[in-house]
Amino acid sequence: MRDPAAPRLPSSPGFWRSPLRGPWFTSVLGLVLLVGITVLFVTGLVSYAAYNPDLSPVNDKTPDKGILGFYLFAWPTDPHWLYRLNQGVHVTLGITLIPVLLAKLWSVVPRLFALPPARSLAHALERISLLLLVGGALFQFVTGVLNIQLDYVFPGSFYTLHFYGAWVFFAAFVAHVLLRMPTVLRTLRHPREERNDLVTPRPAEPTFSRRGALWFVGGGSLLLFATTVGQSFDGPLRRTALLAPRGGDPGSGPNGFQINKTAAYAGIDAAETGGDVWRLVVTGRAGTVRLRRDELLRLPLHSAALPIACVEGWSTSDQWWRGVRLRDLAALVGYDDDPPDVFVESLQRSGAFREAALRANQVADPRSLLALYVNGEELSPDHGHPARIIVPAAPGVLNTKWVARMTFGDL
């Protein structure tokens, strides 16, 4: 039965009665998030840079970034697993931190209702940073998880929303850390001496300790980690990734590894990809050449062991690709010594990235191929038959499938 003397408003000091809330509990969660969110922010920016968005408008899903694009750089091709590692860490860590974030928000919820809203300039700045922090955290985590699980559910560009949202959230995060870090360090050094407005004056009976609560939160994070991380591995571990997309599996055999879109989804007509119809159009400063698949097969063929890594976090192990080097195709149209950037167009009719641009350093890498075979067998329709791009360390969407045209030169 409700105590008639109990406060009825969330702004009342005794309304929030959990004995678990307090500066020590909040500080421990805050330190975990300090490390985790910093890693998330850095890997998110690195993931964005991997698309080479300042190379060509077709790669840039966040136009008009202004000074926020100050850190962009030419994406390297070494090590070849770079994007696989970066995006695996970004997605897996983001999902793993969800219980910590929710526990942190729960621990400070009384402050969201505290009155008066501002007692001083410093307090006002702290409240503003807290509101931006909470709103930004919820927006980034919710949109990120929904985009991973549901592919695309947002009005406008997810890339734009997530990019700008990350900067707003991280700015509030840095401001909050600077304001609260002295208190956090003092609390962790002297936990029994520190009291603040998070400690209820009317505590309810405890059901478990604060350390028990931390173990509970940590167990939730461990469970999410265990049911997510397998998306970056082959074999039995991939089947443990129950809460993460693992990429569509087209079956067994040499082509039996993950894909992000099927030929049917992309609108590929089998009549366009047959040997009597399909031509690869290659254009450069020396003109244009048109090559049938059998003519490509008469060119020098090379092999490379490279993974496929998706922005959603899943990836494959190294697959054995065989085809014509991109720099050899550049040489056919007048670039013998110094291959330039290339603009690649696909037969794909629906879905994002039917066109993509690759930098000169990616073209020049001897492992960058127009692949015709994978694991000793012709590409399947879902893997890009009759020809696809494969480039070391590049995001999966830049490894264009069902290639129709390649234009070498300044983009």
TrEMBL record:
Give the matching InterPro entries. Answer: Mopterin_OxRdtase_euk, OxRdtase_Mopterin-bd_dom, OxRdtase_Mopterin-bd_sf
Q: Where is the Oxidoreductase molybdopterin-binding domain?
A: 276-408
Q: Which UniProt keywords apply?
A: Membrane, Transmembrane, Transmembrane helix
- Membrane spanning residue stretches: 24-51, 89-109, 130-149, 161-179, 212-233
Pfam short name (any one):
Oxidored_molyb
What's this protein's name? Molybdopterin-dependent oxidoreductase
Q: What is the lineage of its organism?
A: Bacteria, Bacillati, Actinomycetota, Actinomycetes, Kitasatosporales
